[in-house]
Amino acid sequence: MNSRLRLVKDLLWFVALFGLVAGVFRIWFGLGATTNLSDAMPWGLWKVLNMIAGVALSTSGFTVGFLVYVLKLEQFKPLVKPAVLVAFLGYGCSCLALLFDIGLPQRFWHPFVMWNEHSFLFEVFWCVSLYFTVTAIELSPTILKRLGMEKLSAWLHRIAFGVVVVGISLSSLHHSSLGSLFLVTPLRLHPLWYSSFIPWFFIISAIGAGLMFIILVRIGYAYFFNPEPVFGKQAEAAAGEACQRSGVGNTSRSRTPGTEIKMLERLAIIAASILALYLLMKVIDLFSTGSISALLAGTWESWLFAFELFIAAILPVVVIAIPRTRRSPYGLGLAALSASLGLALNRVDVGIFGYFQDALVPYFPSLAEWAVSFAVVAAAALAFFVISENFPIFDDRWKRREESLGFFRYSFDRLSHVCNTVLTDSLQRRTIIAVFAIPLAWILLYPPYHQGSQAEYAIVPSTGLDPMRTVLLIDGNRDAIKTEFHHADHQKRLGGENSCSKCHHATMPNDHATPCSRCHRNMITATNIFDHEKHMSYLVKSEHLTGLHPTNRSCAFCHTKEQPKSAANAKECTECHKENMRIQEQLDEHLALASACSFQAAMHDRCITCHNREEAQHPDKNLSHCSNCHKSLQPSAGSAMQALRSARDVLAPK
Amino acid sequence: MHAILIDVTKCTGCELCGQACVDANGLDRDNANVDRVTSPDGLSANRLSAVVKVSEGHFAKKSCMHCLEPSCVSACLVGGITKRPDGPVVYDPSKCIGCRYCMLACPFHIPRYEWDERNPYMKKCAMCFSRIDSGKVPACVEACPNGALTFGERGALLEEAHKKIAEKPTLYQDHVWGEEEFGGTSVLYISDVDLEKLNWPRFEAASIPSLTVALIEKTPFIGLGVGSCLLGLSWIIKRRMQLASEKRREVDPELDSREGGAGK
Is the Cβ of A480 closer than 8 Å to some Cβ of chain B? Predict the structure, then answer.
């Protein structure tokens, strides 16, 4: 095993074990404690990136099958088994991530028995489940043959064509349906991504990028295990030297192309033409639906959309269109990587970023979400390595491996009394990784309740918290010192449940933070809460009254000619306040009755009643004495205002 | 079909409907779960009905609109949400798997989730269908002190709404929200201000399910069609290849032996 492969595997183990802890936390503590999902963003990373993008990248299972079994393009035959393996693992790890995502994973089987044929999600569920079975059947002959079950393998091989056809039909359904899932959100999804053609976009981009992904996997496998067929072999050193000596050719010519690079190149051309079709459709859609204006709006969404389209389609198509780059494994790899990432970004855009404008809150996945998301992918990658190393998927490497490393060999050789280091070595490494990964994950993820990550709300929803509003805490001047306001008490005194309009809406339209002084206007005497002065000055302004005493001319607007002028001979409020005083039938009492006691009486009533009551139990036996609040009544006291302020400090919650 | 008519001009925002809802549904009175509410409408798994300030001095009750063609019903993959023939859209928690597609599908952002539970369920207003069954009106309608909520037959309420608008054309906007939007709802609004804040946009299509129903009904035929096309295509290609190899064999009879009986 070479060192770079070992490093990659160690990293994958680390990620997988780290995510395992996150997954356990998710199951144990629940979705709310471990994820940043919310009512505004109900779908997050696991569903969009792992499920929707992961499944879309696994399309090679049916596309390569289509090329080889239906179109009989035998040249792509070496890719059939890898493609099926990628599909099997891709679907497997997507479904695994989904189990963490759904709220009640123990009920994952419900859609099998409880049907709603009108739901696209139902269709997706069934097709994905069936297709996962199909990939398992397609993969099983290879595995079974290796495990010695020749008969079963041969029988499965015979039905292979039928299975492939079923698989293609299922895939053509659910890859478009994954897009159709978003058809129900025409008002929530950003217009750049919402389109009635979204099922078409999804299936076409999935086919193109899925082919690109299998190219990437093939190149990746070659990079780690067997570079010869893809990267080519070094030409004879002597020949190279001879070329250099004679001055003909250059160093890049010293490599001969691999045997499979031609096939990959042809496959890339197919994939790139599909991606070009996708690009064309996207552009046509932009113009036909008018969302081109959204693209030119210059918002972050339009930049994201442009970037996504660039890496998903434009860059791969350009790289493949240039013969020089498409013939190099690195060019192919770049195009394939770009297309695969672009596809994933597209799904994330549609499923997450496109909803930000509607949700009004950004969603960023929590550490636990990232951990689980990467862990299932890492687990699939590890499974990929195990299967591709031990079974005839890509090449005959497994034979050599069996001879040299002895996968099924006893770990302890009885004859020589020597431990076989193959098994123990890797076990030891994994144990060390686990010793680091699991406690680290525990420390970073526990406690799983991450409070404070939610946004502060401008409007604190009071809905139902204290519907009766027994006591309100009013902070009128925003100095963080709140004053108790006995709302229920006021309500009772003003006439019970139907009295709301006396303070809200009717007498003080649109006033939500009424200061006490608005009603208790006079320090000593009870006052009418009708603001006569304000009405006079308003009339002067609105009616453009002039003269030496313009306010004197305003009387006639409300009062009749009877003398003396009083509330009895004034207009009803509702004659002018038509819009804001909407609860007309409740304004039965005359305004003269809407008076408030003096500020002194109000404050005294509020404080003294309680002080009197509490005095009996309180250690301070002078609790009801005036000097408790009015400090100025003591010999060495300050002003009366200071007294009130100190009284307020006593009331203010610490 | 039952419906609720909400007169926004009469709502003072006292939130007694919300309190009645909390009591009728047995919700937690103290815990509003507001930390998971990311749109400031006050709805959460513990608050199925809220009062939203639609503009300065104007309030409206917000809860499930009980659409005539509900998006959530068409979205739920296990059929856990159903539209009862008498109006309410009800949720059956025993079927739910927690996929939260209903939350994504609802154009009004109504369904809320019990994020803090280990076994979470979706929560939304069910128009107090058990109260309706026993001959009572929904708790919120009963609680409203100002007569802003009216419960009754949808047709009759629509008539009443239009009558009210005709009586006071200067006060009301000439529109009954919920009469046609999203295919019609069982919760109707009349108002003197625009209700866009309640997610009542001007929506052209008949209903959300109408966007998908035509497509989903074709699904089995698409699947079968693709399957049979593939079979046909592969048969044609196979046949052509066979013909081609036969032709080659005519030209070169020794081909068979050279290729090791590939043509058979």
Answer: no
